[in-house]
Amino acid sequence: xxxxxxxxxxxxxxxxxxxxxxxxxxxxxxxxxxxxxxxxxxxxxxxxxxxxxxxxxxxxxxxxxxxxxxxxxxxxxxxxxxxxxxxxxxxxxxxxxxxxxxxxxxxxxxxxxxxxxxxxxxxxxxxxxxxxxxxxxxxxxxxxxxxxxxxxxxxxxxxxxxxxxxxxxxxxxxxxxxxxxxxxxxxxxxxxxxxxxxxxxxxxxxxxxxxxxxxxxxxxxxxxxxxxxxxxxxxxxxxxxxxxxxxxxxxxxxxxxxxxxx
Length: 262
Prior knowledge:
By secondary structure, this protein is an alpha+beta fold.
């Protein structure tokens, strides 16, 4: 494994240990792997990389990418544990040769031998440690400054109409109602950014957001949010989509209320 980003102390030794563990797990297996030759590609899954196979790199390098950004390179001897197709892509700048193992059968064989199972567990823990360090090497320290995680219970106010905008909330879990003048005009769910309009315009909060269920959210201060937008312009598309949906819901609410007016 070749991490991409700022070098961190101890990372090369950890990467070497991961390669050694992979070799110890794979060596002597009864299952005969299938070879997969990949050309230079921007999407290895499209060119034959299967989600239900464990691969060992026999030649070349394969880049693991998320949201268009390269995180690391798997190089010769590395074990690539199956990853769900949830946004992680694999790219190759040149030809890559892989040995692929059926993961279900492989796992059964690994767990049947206690020593091999122990090595497998250690490999997974080491991979987690490596990925955590890769993320730290790629993320500028200023992106974390002032951010905090917060929990809200049903009925708690996440944002209050009229308050000064000091940041946004990224809702990781739960649902919340959006209220204007104490009237529910919409709902937000996990994955949405709350309070972005006020931060972008500098105006007071235009609505109250009240938790419907237990909510978990990351609070990002205004300056951190502006930095995030500059670093990741694609975030604007998501914001526009959310705002368009909220406007549509608000219009529908106005129509409904208008129909009830005598």
